[in-house]
Amino acid sequence: MPNDRISHPIFARFYARVSTSMERGGVAERRDHLLAGLAGEVIEVGAGNGLNFAHYPAEVTRVIAVEPDAYLRGIAQDAAVRAPVKVEVVNGVADRLPLGDAACDAVVASLVLCSVPDQGSALAEMYRVVRPGGQLRFMEHVVAQTPGLRRVQRLLDATVWPVMAGGCHTSRDTSAAIEATGFTIERLERFRFPDTRITNPSSPHILGVASRSES
Asked: Which of 123, 139, 129, 71 is nearest to 100 (CA)?
């Protein structure tokens, strides 16, 4: 998904096209798992072209979907009309979310924390807007667990990958960043996508639930 500071119009159009084939390849099922059990008011950060919208359970009363890219935001607005829950698509960036403190029951971050300019600032905003006891639901591609692939990821991140992929980084340790912000990870699943014999730099993924302390 495009960086929320710099416009990447070519990559936005590429992402909109390739994401539909990713859905058929298994991501749609992962979205069901990501969003299952959510209820109340949710803010989705980096909503892209709105592919999560169809997967929100009926117990969700409203989704505020933040997307900085105008092209993807337009597609998301069309998807919002067809969503089974109320979705409001707004322009915004991850480190300045349009909600007050402790204003929502959950935050959803799906394939976005790889591309925000500053993970720490974005996660701090997510922590700020979710109520005590609320959840962060996340699905992200992350740093590999094997040394060889980690080296490849870091080399690519330092050279061509962010330019080619709309500001995306392959070597971010997102689960560690989530915990460093103050969230407690309650469930963490690791998987590869695409799950092929050859692992590419963006194959390692995590999906899980983290919570903000009640206190």
From this structure: 129
